[in-house]
Amino acid sequence: MEARLETLTVSRDDRGVVTLTMNRPEKKNAINDRMWRELAVVFDEVADSRDDRVLVITGAGDAFTSGADLSGSEAGDVSSGAGAALHSMRLVGRCALRLHDLPKPTIAKVNGVAVGAGCNLALGCDLIVVSDAARFSEIFARRGLSLDFGGSWLLPRLIGLHKAKELAFLGDIIGAAEAERFGIVNRVVPAAELDAEVTALARRIAAQPPVQISITKKLLNQSMSVSMAEALEFEDVAQSLAFSSRDTAEAMLAFFEKRDPEFTGE
After folding, report:
1. Quick one: 218 and 174 in the same domain?
2. Sign of CA dihedral 184, 186, 189, 191
3. Of 17, 85, 160, 211, whose CA is between 20 and 30 Å from 220?
């Protein structure tokens, strides 16, 4: 698939870590309709691959992404009518849902600006690691727009309703330290250390039992929409399946043999 990509580059290492790079640095990796489609395709490919264990998303150059590229987009053309805009926005929504439903852990590696839909693309990942040069903004209101790419769902769950409204109503640009204070990001590191930090983190996660990590992600994602009784039932079923897996047997054996386990996804 990689040979046909025009707006993204995709690389894989031998540990199961996939790195997806938004590659329009001359536009600060603004996401046009082509990139939305390519993102959705790559998300599906990673979801379906047994060899891919962790997805890292980043941007080329000095930006993560400046958000949706409204130039040439039906959503950004006020003369195209509501129907064309809705068609274009549903592409954005499908992409957001594919990222959310991706059954592998995802890490946003934010090396610069992440605004608008780009901010919410980062927030839609399971973990966010940023350089001290990173900047975030829910800039929509300042552009005469409302939230998209799942921002209305993600923000309140990540930082609470009142803080979410503050970011959404004002559209302020916040730096890495303030984003950490808001609870948006997991780690802030010097720019020179970002690549090494994310690589080490991704490989640690990739070394975990992939099926159990996938189930754990699903349990956590649905935790705010189920009752405690439902959560416990889901946990019980998942754990009973884990006990019959080869990876769990390998973990137990490795513990007794005082060595690191080697998980295969079986």
Report:
1. no
2. negative
3. 17
Residues 160, 253 within the same domain: no
Non-local CB neighbours of 200 within 8 Å, separated by 6+ positions: none
DSSP class of residue 67 equals -
Closest C-alpha among 213, 12, 196, 209 to residue 109: 196
The model carries a pTM of 0.92
**Tens-digit pLDDT profile for residues 155-214:** 999 999 999 999 999 999 999 999 999 999 999 999 999 999 999 999 999 999 999 999
**Domain of 224, in residue numbers:** 210-257
Residues 96, 47: contact at Cβ < 8 Å? no
| Spatial contact of 213 and 248, defined as CB atoms under 8 Å apart | no
The two structure tokens encoding residue 227? 């009752």
**Alpha carbon of 211 to those of 128, 192, 235: distances in Å?**
22, 33, 14
| Partner residues linked to 136 by β-bridges | 114, 174
43 lies in a domain?
A: yes
* pLDDT tens per residue across span 54-108: 999 999 999 999 999 987 654 555 556 677 888 888 899 999 999 999 999 999 9
- Domain containing residue 77: CATH number: 3.90.226.10
| 8 A C-beta contact, residue 46 and residue 83 | no
Please name the residue that has the structure tokens 């640690």.
Answer: 204
Same domain, 128 and 216: no
Q: How many domains in the chain?
A: 2
CA 114 from chain center: how many Å?
Answer: 12
Q: What is the CATH number of the domain that holds 246?
A: 1.10.12
Beta strands across the sheet bearing 174-175? 63-65, 113-115, 135-137, 174-175
